[in-house]
Specification:
The protein has 116 residues and is mostly helical. It has one domain. The protein has three helices and two strands. A two-stranded antiparallel sheet has the order 1-2. Helix 1 packs antiparallel against helix 2 and helix 2 packs parallel to helix 3. The radius of gyration is 20 Å and the shape is elongated.
């Protein structure tokens, strides 16, 4: 089986990146909203809601990233670990196949030339 790196132009990779970026931004917003200000109070409901929505976005982003690498959707569980989970899935081995044509007209065992 021929292994390739992530195609940054694939829809799954783009969706994974966008959901991951949005999730990270929402998690940061939630963390900032939960920082106590002068009176010692926090806007905990807004911050917690933002962080939870960000977590869901991150899980969805890792799901799409795993799909772009030909992996099981179960890898989306790593999205719970936020940016660390996304990075772990980004560096796992790619299991997708490249559609290509053999140099000698399609005979099995021939030199493989990917279509570009």
């Amino acid at each position: 089986m021929f292994k390739v790196k992530i195609d940054p132009q694939s829809n799954e990779f783009r969706k994974g990146s966008l959901f991951g970026l949005a999730g990270f931004a929402l998690e940061l917003l939630g963390a900032v909203a939960n920082i106590p200000y002068h009176g010692g109070e926090t806007s905990s409901y807004a911050g917690t809601a933002s962080a939870l929505v960000g977590l869901v976005f991150f899980v969805v982003g890792v799901y799409y990233l795993a799909q772009s690498k030909g992996r099981s959707p179960a890898w989306a569980v790593l999205g719970i670990f936020s940016l660390v989970g996304w990075i772990l899935v980004a560096f796992i081995e790619d299991h997708t196949e490249v559609v290509g044509e053999a140099a000698d007209g399609g005979v099995v065992g021939a030199d493989f030339q990917p279509i570009r």
